[in-house]
């Protein structure tokens, strides 16, 4: 398995797009969330810090390289769209950008991944079709799984 690469700059985003064909003909196949929160042997709630909120997402596509893993660290929000009538779940492309001023405090800049371009300052999470999948986090790492 290859080493994780971290997205820190626009050039890093472009490197990911180039390596994975802009997510064209891809689909999200797997997502695993961890909060860092647990209950110990004395039944005491132990809370994780922001960096322990992680979401690992796996994509596959109809091209090589086929499989991509993305690790969102310091997860802030995840909106996953499930089955939709008359709308297939495949990706034509994906959008990754940096957003500032979404939350008070640190970090000032968050990273946003979405399946369509959208403004993260105007989020709408109602149940409607079609809808958008997006992920907002403090940091993003990625690696090709092949």
What would the principal axes of the Cα set say about the shape?
Answer: globular
Q: Could you report the average pLDDT, rounded to the nearest whole number?
A: 89
The whole-angstrom Rg is: 16 Å
Order of helices and strands: EHEEEEEEEE
Residue share in helix:
under 10%
Oligomeric state of the chains? single chain
Topology overview:
Blueprint: E1 5-6, H1 10-19, E2 26-34, E3 38-39, E4 45-46, E5 54-61, E6 67-79, E7 95-100, E8 109-114, E9 134-144
Antiparallel strand pairs: 1-9, 2-5, 3-4, 5-6, 6-9, 7-8, 8-9
Structure commentary:
This protein has one helix at 10-19, and strands at residues 5-6, 26-34, 38-39, 45-46, 54-61, 67-79, 95-100, 109-114, 134-144. It has 146 residues and is mainly beta. The chain has one domain. It starts with a strand and ends with a strand. The mean pLDDT is 89.
Looking at this protein, list some descriptive labels.
seven-stranded antiparallel sheet, 1 helix, two-stranded antiparallel sheet, globular, about 150 residues
Q: What's the gist of this structure?
A:
The protein is mainly beta and about 150 residues long. About 5% of the residues lie in helices and about 40% in strands. The protein has one domain.
């Amino acid at each position: 398995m290859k080493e994780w690469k971290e997205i820190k700059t626009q050039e890093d985003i472009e490197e990911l797009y180039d390596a994975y064909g802009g997510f064209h003909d891809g689909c999200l196949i797997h997502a695993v969330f961890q909060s860092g929160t647990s209950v110990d042997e004395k039944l005491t709630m132990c809370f994780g810090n922001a960096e322990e909120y992680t979401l690992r997402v796996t994509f596959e596509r109809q091209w090589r390289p086929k499989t991509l893993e993305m690790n969102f660290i310091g997860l802030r929000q995840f909106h996953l769209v499930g089955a939709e009538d008359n709308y297939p779940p495949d990706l034509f492309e994906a959008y990754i950008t940096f957003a500032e001023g979404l939350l008070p405090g640190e970090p000032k800049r968050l990273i946003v991944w979405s399946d369509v371009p959208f403004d993260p300052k105007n989020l709408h999470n109602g149940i409607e079709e079609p809808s958008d999948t997006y992920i907002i986090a403090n940091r993003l790492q990625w690696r090709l799984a092949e």
